[in-house]
Amino acid sequence: MVHSQFLNFCGGFLFGDKAVDEVGVMCRQLGYVKGSAMIVCDSITWEIAGKRISDSLRASGFETVEKNMVEKGAVREEVDKARGRIKSSKAAIVFGVGGGVNIDVAKASAFIEGAKWITVPTIFAADAMTGINATFRGEEKGVDGKAHQGDYDFRVGPPLACVVDNEIVRSAPWRFQAAGFADYVAKACAIEDWKLAYAQKMTDHYSEYGVALANSHISYLIENAARIRKMETGPFEAFLKALMNDGFLTQMSGDSRILFGSEHVIGQALMEGESRMKSLHGEQVAIGTIIMSRLQGLDWKVLKGSLEEIGAPTTARAIGFDSETLVMAIARGPEINRAWMHDRPDFYTILTHKDFTEQQVRKIAKETGVIE
Ligand SMILES: [Zn+2]
Predict the structure, then answer these.
(1) Interatomic CA distance for residues 122 and 101, integer angstroms
(2) What is the 172 CA–ligand 1 centroid distance (Å)?
(3) Cross-strand partners of 286
(4) How far away, in angstroms, is 183 Cα from ligand 1 center?
(5) Cα of 25 to ligand 1 centre, how many Å?
(6) What is the CA radius of gyration of the chain?
(7) How far is ligand 1, taken at its centre, from the CA of residue 259, in Å?
(8) 343 phi and psi angles, rounded to 5 deg
(9) Which of 273, 9, 260 is nearest to 135 (CA)?
(10) How far is the CA of 247 from the centre of ligand 1 (A)?
């Protein structure tokens, strides 16, 4: 028996060079012609895109465009501040402009206040733009009013639209896009873990359609990494669109297991280490993908090769770790995985299935060239 499920997705994409100047026209097409809007940004993304979005909205008939600056990261205080502004300005649409943090603050504050939200990623370091969750840092009292030890997700649903200005993303530091690429091809490991959990009857759900869709994207990205790196028009556009489609992919898969598996557990282990501030999420996941794909018996050389071609870090040193600290951090993987299973008992992966001792970590890290 297949239970019926209502799936809704990001309602529209505005994609192309100078897209941010067309936001007012897009809002008109979506039925928003006047009133008040709010832009959630920081001083950098205001200069890059926020100001132009504000001009475009005013030109198309919006009377008020409020600016809300994020200063403290993905924390409740920022969501409360943004909510206050939405209330006082009666904003019907909220724009999240920038990387993950601004987008997450926009998503959560608009959702709670009953406004619509539109995401405007200026970098492609992760796939938050069309996702149905907003991610926040652990606090005594989180956005949902509950206590959280580590990072947590707050479910908000899909955005009204997603705006991607190719020109802006092209001129962003490449490191961010390389990290986003790594976060995407990491799905190769996540899928393997999901298959394992299903085969071991640790989960009763598995989506062949979601996996087929993700695999076709992963193969394309791996084969075209060098062309994406050169920002050739076709492959670079395909890369952006693959990441923009993540919200659709997750909903169609019916499970966030398509997004992360054991390689993200290793990424988490590396984030808890001393390099937390030095490397990006996708960069930590890149190392997790190399190590886990070897443990899973996948073609790790192909995955590592694509990460090298795209310019993502593939060694301990490149993410600010010395060899021994990295081995110790990764050896905590099984423990972290089991801790995640308190919340998600179905999160069975290769790390809970097989022994993964410090000696094995060292051996695999050497074999794959992550350490010398
Ligand atoms: Zn990720």
Answers:
(1) 12
(2) 20
(3) none
(4) 5
(5) 33
(6) 21
(7) 7
(8) -80, -40
(9) 260
(10) 13
Amino acid of residue 33: V
Burial of 161 (0-12, 13-18, 19+ CB in 10 A): buried
d(CA 271, CA 264): 10
Ligand 1 center–CA 285 separation, angstroms: 7
> pLDDT digits over 224-283, tens only?
999 999 999 999 999 999 999 999 999 999 988 999 999 999 999 998 766 556 799 999
Q: Which residues lie near ion ligand 1 (Cβ < 5 Å)?
A: 183
Cα–Cα dist 325/310, whole Å? 26
> Is there a contact between 116 and 138 (Cβ–Cβ < 8 Å)?
no
pLDDT band at residue 150 using 50, 70 and 90 as cut-offs:
confident
* Whole-number Å distance between alpha carbons of 348 and 200: 9
CA max distance for the chain: 65
Å from CA of 83 to ligand 1 middle? 27
What's the confidence (pLDDT) of residue 242?
Answer: 95
- For residues 169 and 123, the answer to whether their CB atoms sit within 8 Å is yes
- Catalogue all structural domains in the chain, each as residue range(s) with its CATH number: 13-170 (3.40.50.1970), 174-367 (1.20.1090.10)
pLDDT at 277: 64
Can you give the pLDDT at residue 275? Answer: 55
Residue 127 alpha carbon to ligand 1 centre in Å: 8
> 110 C-alpha vs ligand 1 centroid, how far in Å?
23
Cα separation values, 66 from 87, 91, 173, 280, Å: 11, 8, 28, 30
Ligand 1 center to 27 CA (angstroms): 30
Rounded to whole angstroms, the Cα distance separating 308 from 269 reads 22
**Residues near 315 by beta carbon (within 8 Å), at least 6 away in sequence:** 369, 370, 371
Mean pLDDT (whole number) for 158-177 = 96
> How far is ligand 1, taken at its centre, from the CA of residue 176, in Å?
13
Cα-to-centroid distance, 256 and ligand 1 (Å) = 11
